[in-house]
C-alpha cells in the first residue's frame, strides 16, 4: 500500500507530547478508587472499566466541507457482586460525588436482584500475569486542515477517474485514540491503548433511474498504513461504474462467491452461533457441536490475540482472563465454543477467555485469491454487497438481498442487483469449496474470498 499524505501533511508525530502514560496512570487510580468505594458499600466482589477517547472526523462533498467534528468521551462502567447477586451502573462524570452515587446505584440494584449461580468475577487463577502491548498505539497530532485536504483530494480523484461519475455521496477522514483500564477486586489491573485512522469515499455514477452508488475505504491503526487518498478515490470510482446497468438473474441454484470484505460476515454468523450467549439460551443451530464436523476437513481457524498490529490484539479479555493462541476449527471440526466466565458457568464449562468476543481470527485459505476461485467456475454469482438481516441463528436459515456480478467461465459478464441468496448456514458451512488468501486487512477477521458450492438465487 502507498503511504497516505495525511501522515506527513499535518498529522505529525506526537511521541514527545504523548500523554497516554499519564492518562493511564490517572485511570488506574480512578479504578482503584471505585473499587474501594464498592468494598465500602458492602460488595463481596467488583470490577470496573475506565476509558477515555478523543478523535477528529471531517467530511466533504462535491468539493465543499460538510462537517468537522471533534469528539471527547470518557466513562466508568462498574459491576458489583453481593455473593451471587449482581448490579451494574456507569457514569461519564469522574467527580467524587458522581462516582459515589454510581457505586451506590449499582449496590442498590444488586441488593434487590435474585441470586444467579453463574454470577461473579472470572477465575482468579486465570487472570493475565504477563501484560503486553501489540503495536496498536501510533498517536498523531489531529490536524483538521490536513484531514480536509486529504478528503478533498480523495473525492476529487474519484470524480476525475471516469466521466460516468456524476455525483458524490461524500468523502470522510477520521482519526481517534483511546486508552482504557480494567481492574477488579482480585487486585488485577490492566490497560490498553489504541489508535485508529480511516479514509472513505462514496460516489454515484449514471443518472436518473440508472444511478448506482458504491465506494471504498481504508482503515488502519497507524496513519502511514492507510492506502493513498488518490488510490481510495480511484477504487471507489472503479467499483461504482462497474455497477452500472445491472440486471437480475433467473431463479435457480448457483455457486456463490463472496469477496473478502463480504465473506467475513459468513464467518461472523458462525462465531455468533458458537458464542456462549446463544448456546446457553439454546438459540443456536450449533448446539452440542463441539468436537463435531462443521466445515470441510481442510478448513482451519485460529484465534490470534497476540498478533502484533492486530485490530483486536490483547493480553486479557474483558474480565481480565489471560488470552492465548487457540484453535477454533481444525480440519473442519469445531474445537471449542466462544465463552466468557458467565456463559461458561451456565454451560458447565470453562471460560475460553472470550469475554468481549473473538480477539483476531485467522481463517486459512486454500487458494491464492478471488481470481483463482473464479477461474474454475463456468457460471456463478459473485457477491460484493449484502443487504437485509434475514439470518435466523436458531434454525440457521439464511436469506439476504445481494448485489454483485454474474460470472461465466471466470469472467464478469454483467452486474447483478435485486437478487436474494438463500440457504441454511449448516449447509453453507459444509458446502464451502474454497477460501482465498487475499486477506482483507481492514478487519480482525483475517480471511479472503469464499466460495460456497451451491445456493438458491432468487432473481429480481
Automatic annotation (TrEMBL):
Annotated family: Belongs to the peptidase U62 family.
Cellular component terms (Gene Ontology): cytosol
PANTHER family in alphabetical order: METALLOPROTEASE PMBA
Domain Metalloprotease TldD/E central: 138-244
NCBIfam families in the cross-refs: PRK11040.1
Gene Ontology molecular function: any one: metallopeptidase activity
GO biological process: proteolysis
Residue ranges occupied by any Metalloprotease TldD/E N-terminal domain in the UniProt entry: 46-110
Domain Metalloprotease TldD/E C-terminal as annotated: residue spans: 251-459
Pfam families xref list: PmbA_TldD_1st, PmbA_TldD_2nd, PmbA_TldD_3rd
Record organism: Solilutibacter silvestris
Protein name: Putative Zn-dependent protease
Keywords associated with the record: Hydrolase, Protease
